[in-house]
Design brief:
Blueprint: E1 3-5, H1 11-19, E2 86-89, E3 95-98, E4 105-107, H2 110-118, E5 125-128, H3 150-155, E6 160-163, H4 170-176, E7 180-183, H5 190-204, H6 207-227, E8 234-240, H7 251-258, E9 262-263, H8 280-286, E10 290-297, H9 301-305, H10 314-317, E11 321-323, H11 326-330, H12 336-350
Parallel strand pairs: 4-5, 4-6, 6-7, 8-9, 8-10, 10-11
Antiparallel strand pairs: 1-2, 2-3
Helix pairs in contact: 5-6, 6-12
Length: 351
């Protein structure tokens, strides 16, 4: 994913802007069994003579518990019209030219709703989809990212739509109406997530804040991993009652990997999907030290403890059954720091 900014107006960009009478956006929510739209993204590159070469100084202490950068602490000199036109290459490989700073953003991606608010673009967010339940003041609507209604999206009169996937060719339909659309696929690793923070910042005129958020999030997570006890522990991450899980090759698994934890599901992922379904017998035999119950359909700790044969598992015997907010665990926004804190705390308890 490549982002470039230029300060040279183009007539084509102006015409697109004049056509933008409507708008839309799309969402990706991990579906049953934790299916993940794994699409690789390239490094983000930002080019703009009007931007500082480096983000403002800051450290992990400047971020809140969710890893959100405080937009007031960032000298966002690029937040005005001087930062436009801007070109962002999204996960489709499409170079999206944004002629002017967006002021009526529609987000159909809960993750990007969180990113937009974290970088100080909240006043530019006009509407969000029915799954964007955080932060509390997000302008939630009944728009759907699963089954997007082009007319309903257009009725919001957006100048930019941000989505996590593109069901039914939604992006083409909206672009045909003159609406700018960015599709940012589900991040498959931490680097991709942070690149999307930066790309989103460029797209909405908060490039410095996007870079700062990425920097603070990385530093916070690295510090949490450094503070964790050195212990050889195995874990099982449960997505639902049908025992679907996530391996080390997923975004979720990479977070655990920062702490040196062993994923018991890795040997069972024969087709490399990243989300295999395990059997109860397999999990009992692998005997994880920690069990994280993180999916929307995951069982409660007492239900897990009552499963036949599970009383022999170390995690059950020692009470290391950890409930994790499914939204925080499934989204790749700045609250991944909270997820990492949960992992670190669980390791502290188990060590």
């Amino acid at each position: 994913m490549r982002c470039t900014l230029s300060t040279h107006p183009t007539s084509a960009g102006a015409r697109r802007r004049l056509l933008a009478a409507i708008g839309a956006t799309a969402l990706l929510v991990s579906a049953c069994a934790g299916e993940d739209a794994d699409a690789p993204t390239d490094d983000v590159e930002v080019e703009d003579d009007d931007l500082d070469d480096e983000p403002d100084d800051g450290d992990a202490d400047d971020a809140d518990e969710g890893g959100d950068a405080d937009a007031d602490d960032v000298d966002d000199a690029d937040a005005g019209e001087d930062a436009f036109p801007a070109t962002v290459t999204d996960s489709r490989g499409v170079d999206v030219e944004i002629a002017e700073r967006p002021e009526r953003i529609v987000s159909l991606s809960p993750t990007h709703t969180e990113i937009l608010f974290a970088i100080g673009a909240d006043e530019q967010v006009h509407a969000v989809d029915d799954q964007s339940d955080y932060p509390d003041d997000a302008p939630i609507t009944d728009l759907s990212g699963f089954e997007p209604n082009i007319e309903a999206i257009a009725d919001e009169d957006p100048d930019l739509v941000i989505a996590a996937f593109d069901p039914g060719g939604m992006a083409d339909d909206l672009e045909g109406l003159g609406i700018d659309v960015l599709i940012f696929d589900t991040a498959t690793n931490i680097d991709e997530a942070l690149e999307q923070y930066e790309a989103t910042g460029v797209a909405v005129g908060h490039a410095d804040a996007g870079e700062q958020l990425a920097t603070d999030t990385r530093e916070d997570m690295e510090q949490l991993a450094a503070d964790a006890p050195e212990a050889s522990l195995a874990y099982y991450h449960e997505l639902d009652e049908f025992l679907y899980t996530a391996t080390s090759q997923t975004f979720i698994g990479e977070v655990y990997g920062l702490f040196g934890l062993e994923n018991v599901a890795d040997p069972a992922d024969e087709d490399g999907s990243g989300f295999p379904q395990l059997s109860e017998e397999y999990i009992v035999e692998e005997n994880p030290d920690l069990i994280f119950l993180a999916g929307a359909g995951a069982s409660a700790p007492d239900e897990v403890a009552d499963r036949p044969g599970w009383d022999t598992i170390t995690a059950v015997q020692e009470g290391n059954l950890i409930e994790v907010d499914s939204d925080i665990a499934s989204r790749w926004g700045p609250r991944i720091v909270e997820f990492a804190e949960t992992v670190r705390d669980a390791m502290d308890d188990a060590a």
